[in-house]
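Internal tracking record. Fields below are filled automatically when a chain is submitted to the structure queue. Please do not edit lines marked as system-generated. If the sequence contains nonstandard residues, flag them in the REMARKS field before resubmitting.
Queue: standard
Priority: normal
Entity type: single polypeptide chain
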Amino acid sequence: MPTSPIPALPNSRTEPDGSAVIRVLSYNIRSMRDDTAALARVIAACAPDLVLVQEAPRFFRWRKKLARLARAADLVILSGGGSAAGPALLCSLRATVERTEDVLLPLTPGLHRRGFATAVVRFGGARLGVLSCHLSLQTDERYDQGGMLLDRLAGMGVEHAVAGGDLNERPGGRTFRRLAEGLQDCWTAKPWGGENTSTPADPHQRIDALFATPGIEVLGCGVPLDLPGVGPDDLRAATDHLPVLAALRVPPVAP
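SYSTEM-GENERATED OUTPUT FOLLOWS
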């Protein structure tokens, strides 16, 4: 029996009631050390309103490198990069920016510095907090950072928020479970496309994810394997992770 085609992911739009359908992409880009043209093609084909980047360039001329990627994908830099120890946010011109903040997390001696790139943005009548993260490889530090992520979202002063990134942990891990208890795991809420994000040549584990606060409707989330313009060669060449793309409906701000 032939398999049913994967339904199309909804396009971005503003609803008559002021709610916003947005596309959010999370992507570990490995400091742009791979095929940056392929990377830009993948991002552009996903037509995102927001891109939650991990492993953005952090050192020599990092701002120019990230700006070049944003420009190639028809986006602009929102926050992060070297100033957030790797996480960054890109956005389309559809977003109205209220504020941004780069957050450096406590440094454990002998381990990499970690941080959050955060922002509050508006789309139509909807207001949204955004956070990009790349959590620690060390189990206990990663768990603590998961708690800091939840605290940061709670302190942003917004009803609705989306967070995501490279968790360095599978769904069964205690940090992943901690996040999924307080937030919607978008893949679990509405699976779409592929599930596993690592590695592009052998996708066997889901260590990258998008989460949304209750009240946001998840319209679909997963690896955009069959999205027009996203080819397997580009996915393998772009970086060492697969991207996660979600379509979300964010309610309008209450009058």
